[in-house]
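Intended use. Records like the one below are meant for learning the mapping from a protein sequence to its folded structure. Do not use them to infer anything beyond what is encoded.
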Amino acid sequence: MSEQPKPKKLTIANPELKKAAATLRAENTPQNFNAVINQLMRGVFLAPGKIDPGSVPPKPDEMGRVKLPKDTKITFALLKASDGKSFFTAFTDEEELKKWKGIPTNQNMLLRFDDYARMLSGNDKVSGFVLNPFSDNLRFSKEMVETLKKQRDELVAKAAAAKQAALRQSQIKAGDKVTIVEPSVYPDELLDPLCETLEKYPSVAAAFLQIMVINGKDKSYLLVLDAPKDETLFKDVALACRTFLAGNEKKMNLNITTSASPLGQQGMRGSEAFYLKGQGRIRDEDEED
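Structure written out for the chain above:
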């Protein structure tokens, strides 16, 4: 009878986070705090708790991990501060975990920042979570976690929108036939948030919207900005257009370029700007009617 292989032990360590936390303890500055947050967002932490999988305990895989049934009950261990508030715990490694003398359980789960954010959302009994409570003792309140998650999600959305919407010249290959036509309808759901964003950038003198058709079939919106190339501007514009582009029935993408490019010059030729610096959105008589 063959011997069953022993489960491989999964080691949890966050050396960069521990280093950043030590630096923050030595010098509490916004820069050092931001360094901790950046590592915190990437980390995986040990969280003591009690798992009740029901009548039939699941079997571990070769890594010692188990897939829990849907009806599994998990109760996380809490630490109570001197002010009476309760906190979830997050340990960077086993060394930090062992500092909890009289720990109420020998079961541990692996959690990320988003897991703590989800557990805290709508939870009136827990005030936040604390990182390495017996050394670094860094508290993150429920409000702080909510704010950090929102900021991180917005940055991720901006990056994704910019990647999807920014024009890549490689999309147009040598020999492709590119046709620029005026839109039959200028959608308010697209232009209104777009103009609000453009007003924040004095460098934008004007903006034009066209429809670009490649080889007679591939259609997309072409936004031409009479402004210097600015990646931050492009990202904010892409984010402003995200809701409309995600919901438009024709599933047309948005390409962005500037007036200095050959494509931008073609897009402006014979076209009226929908936005002018100092005036905001320009509406023609047909739109007003």
